[in-house]
Every structure is written in structure tokens, then in C-alpha cells.
Design a protein that fits this description.
It is an enzyme of class 7 (translocase). The protein has 713 residues and is α+β, with helices and mostly antiparallel strands. Among the domains are: 132 residues; 84 residues, Calcium-transporting ATPase, cytoplasmic transduction domain A; 127 residues, HAD superfamily/HAD-like (Rossmann fold, 3-Layer(aba) Sandwich), CATH 3.40.50; 114 residues, Calcium-transporting ATPase, cytoplasmic domain N, CATH 3.40.1110.10. It is built from 24 helices and 22 strands. The strands form 4 sheets. The protein has a 7-stranded mixed β-sheet with strand order 10-22-21-20-11-18-19, with helices on both faces. Helix 3 packs antiparallel against helix 4, helix 4 runs antiparallel to helix 6 and helix 18 runs parallel beside helix 23. The longest helix has 35 residues. It is elongated.
Length: 713
């Protein structure tokens, strides 16, 4: 988007101040009543659906795959696990565990032949995701978990097949590892399934964006008749009619008609914006209560929404910067196992004989199998995901947790994220002791009677909440460019903008608020301050971020005055009038400085930066587009939940590290002992003891994962 385009597509921001004078206060022809609001909640229920898909979020994003888990295309782990389970159980019942028979095991004549057949099927079917995954890892020159599992199952399978053949051909007894082979495949398949289940599937942000734009447009022909045409067939220069309540089909300039257009989803501007002939409208924004005739200026890939789509796909194709700890540990184990096994093979061939050397080598490679390591992360992920969900935090990408613990900056949208996104009465002030506050509110509600203006609607609903009936006015007239006046109980009242009143008032005006003054006989008797109210937990969130050394920055599409007001109350840095491109560039700039960035937002204008940031957090009442671009969804739209998410991220990452120590620590200690490093002093790790230790570390990892808890709110 060139700078010219950027400025032109956002020239509407100068309407944002919305002081009363621009909005002829009582315009009777506007019958709309906040009907724009329901568009802000598009897809609010839909994000529940994300939870139930069993693919890994990272794979929908082109190159956005995250190390070590970019394997869901190698098959559905649930299906493979469930089909492999019966074979695996039969193999484990018919095979001794590293040479020792367990109470539930038995054998019969030629049972080992059956075991070889079942193991061959299991190796080909159940092992496929792992050796396909290890091929990917070797292509990336980064062997990790998949390579380690493939090594373990291949060594134990081929050596065990050799053991059975040797038994029948030469009669010698060679220890086989079918039990370890089957248990490793089942545990690893289960671990991956748990993880895929815990981590939801990302929706398609591009598709959700496209749905904001209607499929058809009403084109006005030269004879003033209307033809319905698919939006894709619109040409620049076409004149279209946009009815009240419809979404605008394409970017253009209003030729005739007046209305208020809600652009909150697209630009973040919280108030519906007054639009007159000559003003621009953006495709995807929602027309209020008037009929607009719009000349098309941009279609296809030059349109605002299309540029947002381009930004999202750019963001999603960026490689992940997450350091996947389990993947790194598995990589180290892979190299250690190979090196130690080769050293053991050479040394034992020199000091003993080939059979002894092979036994030590195979035992080393089998012991290196990451049973506990395979469950270490998935069990914590599953626990963390269910804990998060119970708090209204849907974590779609577990790496978001790891990245959050290292975050430096959080970029926050304002409208609908830190604020309620709705116009509210913030304060009512009295300037005359003739009237009580309730009487002033009754007058305000009465004089705003028949108006559908957002300001009027807020005052009327405020009076209703307070249980104050409005004063009945005999007549109400619009004062052009200033407000409204009317007659009640023989008195003449005016409700006008502060600018129209023209004198200073002795009151503290809430920052960023719009002020309307109630005047009787040219004297101010009361005033009402209205604005987009901060959510109750926004302040606590900012304090929590500072405590965790995360710098908060507010980036909003709203106007300077509104942005400054909210930023001063919260005590944070801010940027106003931010287009989607501006927000995207801000995140890009921060990342280029080497900072880890969390982005929080709820609208289409936030979607590209949600996708680009290291961690994207979408506020649940926002748009489907934002929900689809994010890694984490706050279903309750409460900024305080971000605090819970940071706590969840810190505790989950700590548990993952503890589990990696338990899971991999066993391997790091057992591998050299299995290789016979302590044999000269009479200590060898018998395969049976190795197997018991392996089971123990798996149990410890499982128990440790279950102890993950969040502080009560």
C-alpha cells in the first residue's frame, strides 16, 4: 500500500472527533438504533468450533510450520494410534520385556513368528509418521524427536527380527526388543494425538475476511434501474446502491445520500462515522440507516480488504521464531545416542567380541528411546489447554505459551480490546442547584427523545438503567450544526456541543470524552460527558505487563483525541489513526529490533499484525478474521484474562522444562551406562533395570504434568 493510498483510504479519520456540531443532533431521518453493533460480534460463537479439530494449527499457514511438529500431513495420529493399539498390545503380551517375563505375558509355540508378522505391520503402518517426519528433519538438517523415535523403533525392530531368525537358523538365543518396539510406537502415537487434540485448528482468516464483503452488489444503470451483479464483476466507475444495514461491497466515493457507516471492524474507529457525498467508504464496512449511492474506486486486489488479506498471507508465511525445547533436547539425544553407540561398538569389539559389542550398541540405542520425552510436552499441553479453556483462554498454538514467557512488547488495540467499544455516559455534571442530578438526566433523556444518534441512544439507555423517566417535551427542533432544542413545562432547553456553547465550564472532563451542555435561558445547568469506556480490568492488565517487564503500546485506528484520553488514564505509549498497514509495520519494526512481540486485537484491522506477531491474542467478541489469525482467543473479551494467560504461559513452560529434565535426564544418564562405561567397575545397566527406569520416568512426567494449576481469580 503506497503512502498515498494509505492516506486516501484513511481520510475518513478526520470525522472521528464527532463533536456534536457535525452530527446535527436530532436528525429525525436517522431511524437506526445501534444496529451496527451486531456486526462487531460476527462469529462470536464460532471459535468454540476451533477446539474440536485435531490438526496442528501451524500447518495451515504455508511456511508457518513450527519445528518438530510439522507432521500432521503424515497421517491422523488418533486413527493410526487406535488401529495400532490392538497389534501393539498383542506384541507386548507375547514378548518378554528386555528379557524378563512380566506376570501378564505368555508365549506358545511359534508365538514369536506371530510377533514378527504383527511387528512388521506395526513398523510399516504405525511407524510411518515417524520415519516420514525424520526424513523432513534430515532435509532441514535438524534431526530431532522424529529421528530419535525412528532410530529407536528401527534398531529394536530389525535387531529383534534378527534374534528370531537366529533362534530358528543357528539355535542361539539372542535377546529381542519387540516389547520396547511396540511400547515406543504406541506411546509416541498417543503423545502426538494428545498434543494434536489439545491444540485446536486455525481457521482460515482469508475466507472469513472475504465473507465481510457481500457476494452481490446493486448496480445503478443509466436509466436509474437497478441490476444485481456479483461483486467480482464490479468495475471501477460503476455506481452502486447500498441499502441501510448492508455491508458495503467495495471501496468507493459517495455520490449521493447521507448515512453513518460503522468501520469499527476494519479501522478500529469506535464511533459510526458520518458520511456525506464526496466521502470515502471501505468495502466490508456496515452502512447505518441511510441509503448511499457509491462510485466504485477500487476493486479486486487493490481494495482495502484485499490488501489486508495480502498482509495476512505475508505474515503467515514468515518462519516461526520459537525455540522448541523438546525438539532441541531430542536432537541432542539423537546425536549422543549415535556417538555413544558407535564408541561402544568399537571399544567392545576391541576388548570383547562382536556379539558383546552388538548387544551393548543395541541396548544403548533402545535405551535412548524417548518414551518419557515423547509424553513430557503433550501431557503438559493437554493439562494447560484444559486449564486455559476453563478460564476462557483457547490456546490454538502451544508455542504461543513458550514465546509469551520471553515477550518484550505487547501491542494492544484500543476499541473493543481495552475499551468496551460502545458509547457510554461517563459523567453527568450539575451547574445549578435548582435541579437535582436525576432531574438533569430526565431532561437529557427527554430532549434526546426521537433521535437515533449514538450519543442520544447512550443518554436514553443511561436514564433507563438509572430508572429515571424522561421529561415529556412539547416540541424538539434541530439547531443546525450545534445540537437540539425543545420546550418542556414552559421552559426552553438546548442540548448543544461544548464548541457551540463557546464558554469554559468548571468541570473535569474525562479524557477523550465528548461533552454536551444542557442550557436553559442561555445558562449551562448541566453537562453530560460521553465516550468509549475502558474495560474494568484494563488498568490491572497494564500494571501486570509492567511487572512482567513487557512494554505495553496501544495502537488504535481511533482518532488522536480518543487515543490520547485512554492512553493517559492507562499510563502507556500510544499511536493513533493506525491503518492495518501501519499496525503491521509497527510489529515488523519491533521484530526487526529483535523484540518478541505479542499483539492483542479484535478487528479486521488487527488481523495481519495478529498473524505476524510472535503471539497473536484475539479478543473473543471480535471478528472471525481476527480469531482465525490469532494463536490465542480470549472467549470472555476481558483484558484481565491476558494476565491469566501470561501466568498460564509461565507455569506451563516451567512444567515443560521440569518434564524435559525428568524425561531426558533418564536418557542422558542411562545411555552411557547402557554403553558399558561403568562395566570396568562391575556396573552395567541390565536391560531389565533400564526398562524399569524408563517406565518410572514416564510415570513421574505424567504426575508432574497433572500438578499444573492456576491461581484462583
Amino acid at each position: 500500500m503506497s503512502n498515498n493510498e494509505k492516506h486516501s483510504s484513511h481520510s475518513h479519520h478526520n470525522h472521528g472527533d464527532m463533536d456534536h456540531s457535525k452530527h446535527n443532533h436530532g436528525e429525525m431521518e436517522h431511524h437506526g438504533d445501534h444496529n451496527h453493533q451486531h456486526h462487531e460480534h460476527v462469529g462470536h460463537g464460532d471459535h468454540e468450533a476451533h477446539k474440536h479439530h485435531e490438526h496442528d494449527h501451524n500447518h495451515d499457514h504455508g511456511g508457518h510450520g513450527h519445528g518438530g511438529h510439522d507432521h500432521h500431513h503424515h497421517g491422523d495420529f488418533k486413527e493410526i494410534f487406535l488401529k495400532s493399539l490392538p497389534m501393539g498390545i498383542i506384541i507386548m503380551i507375547l514378548s518378554p520385556m528386555m528379557g524378563i517375563s512380566l506376570p501378564f505375558q505368555f508365549t506358545f509355540q511359534y508365538s514369536d513368528i506371530l510377533v514378527v508378522l504383527l511387528s512388521t505391520i506395526l513398523y510399516i503402518y504405525g511407524g510411518k509418521p515417524f520415519y516420514m517426519g525424520s526424513i523432513d528433519e534430515f532435509k532441514e538438517k535438524a534431526p530431532g524427536m522424529m529421528a530419535l523415535v525412528t532410530l529407536g523403533i528401527s534398531v529394536s525392530y530389525f535387531y529383534s527380527v534378527y534374534a528370531v531368525i537366529a533362534k530358528y537358523v543357528t539355535g542361539e538365543h539372542v535377546m529381542e526388543f519387540f516389547f520396547e518396539f511396540a511400547s515406543l510406537i504406541l506411546i509416541m502415537l498417543l503423545g502426538h494425538w494428545i498434543e494434536m487434540k489439545a491444540v485446536g485448528e486455525a481457521g482460515d482468516a482469508q475466507k472469513a475476511l472475504a465473507e465481510l464483503v457481500p457476494k452481490d452488489a446493486h448496480v445503478v444503470l443509466e436509466d436509474d434501474s437497478i441490476e444485481t451483479r456479483p461483486v467480482a464483476d464490479l468495475q471501477v466507475g460503476d455506481l452502486i446502491r447500498v441499502q441501510a444495514g448492508e455491508n458495503v461491497p467495495a471501496d468507493g466515493i459517495i455520490q449521493r445520500g447521507e448515512s453513518r457507516v460503522n468501520e469499527a471492524l476494519l479501522t478500529g474507529e469506535s464511533k459510526p462515522i458520518e458520511k456525506n457525498p464526496g466521502d470515502e467508504v471501505i468495502g466490508g464496512s456496515t452502512n447505518g440507516d441511510g441509503v448511499l449511492y457509491v462510485e466504485i474506486k477500487q476493486t479486486g486486489d487493490k481494495s482495502f480488504i484485499s490488501q489486508v488479506q495480502t498482509l495476512i498471507s505475508q505474515a503467515q508465511s514468515q518462519p516461526s521464531r520459537a525455540e522448541n525445547l523438546a525438539q532441541k533436547v531430542a536432537g541432542w539425544l539423537f546425536y549422543i545416542a549415535i556417538i555413544v553407540a558407535l564408541i561402544a561398538l568399537v571399544i567392545w569389539m576391541i576388548i570383547a567380541d562382536v556379539p558383546t559389542a552388538v548387544i551393548f550398541t543395541v541396548t544403548t540405542l533402545v535405551i535412548a528411546c524417548p518414551h518419557a520425552l515423547g509424553l513430557a510436552i503433550p501431557l503438559v499441553t493437554a493439562r494447560s489447554t484444559s486449564l486455559g479453556a476453563s478460564r476462557g483462554l483457547l490456546v490454538k498454538d502451544r508455542e504461543a505459551l513458550e514465546l509469551t514467557t520471553n515477550a518484550d512488547v505487547m501491542v494492544l488495540d484500543k476499541t473493543g480490546t481495552l475499551t468496551t467499544g460502545e458509547f457510554k455516559v461517563l459523567d453527568v455534571e450539575l451547574f445549578n442547584d435548582k435541579y437535582t442530578k436525576d432531574e438533569i438526566v430526565a431532561l437529557l433523556a427527554g430532549i434526546e427523545g426521537g433521535s437515533s444518534h449514538p450519543i442520544a441512544q447512550s443518554i436514553i439507555s443511561y436514564a433507563e438503567q438509572q430508572g429515571i423517566p424522561p421529561v415529556s417535551f412539547d416540541s424538539i427542533e434541530v439547531i443546525s450544526g450545534a445540537g437540539v432544542e425543545g420546550q418542556a413545562n414552559g421552559h426552553r432547553y438546548q442540548l448543544i456541543s461544548q464548541k457551540a456553547y463557546g464558554r469554559n465550564l468548571d468541570m473535569d472532563i474525562p479524557k477523550g470524552a465528548t461533552l454536551s451542555v444542557l442550557v436553559e435561558n442561555d445558562e449551562a445547568i448541566g453537562a453530560v460527558a460521553l465516550g468509549d469506556e475502558l474495560k474494568p480490568t484494563s488498568k490491572e492488565l497494564i500494571q501486570a505487563l509492567k511487572k512482567n517487564n513487557i512494554q505495553p503500546i496501544m495502537a488504535t485506528g481511533d482518532n488522536e483525541k480518543a487515543a490520547q484520553g485512554a492512553a493517559e488514564i492507562l499510563g502507556i505509549d500510544y499511536l493513533a489513526n493506525q491503518s492495518p498497514q501501519d499496525k503491521y509495520e509497527l510489529v515488523e519494526k519491533l521484530k526487526a529490533e529483535g523484540k518478541k512481540v505479542i499483539m492483542v486485537g479484535d478487528g479486521v484491522n488487527d488481523a495481519p499484525s495478529l498473524a505476524l506477531a510472535d503471539v497473536g491474542i484475539a479478543v473473543g467478541a471480535g471478528t472471525q478474521v481476527a480469531l482465525d489469525s490469532a494463536d490465542v482467543i480470549l472467549t470472555q473479551s476481558d483484558p484481565g484474562d491476558i494476565e491469566s494467560f501470561i501466568e498460564l504461559a509461565q507455569k506451563t513452560t516451567r512444567k515443560m522444562k521440569e518434564n524435559l529434565v525428568w524425561g531426558a535426564g533418564y536418557n542422558f544418564i542411562a545411555i552411557p551406562i547402557a554403553a558399558g562405561i561403568l562395566a570396568p567397575i562391575g556396573i552395567t545397566l541390565s536391560p531389565a533395570v533400564g526398562a524399569v527406569l524408563m517406565s518410572l520416568s514416564t510415570v513421574i512426567v505424567a504426575i508432574n504434568a497433572m500438578t499444573l494449576k492456576l491461581e484462583p481469580k
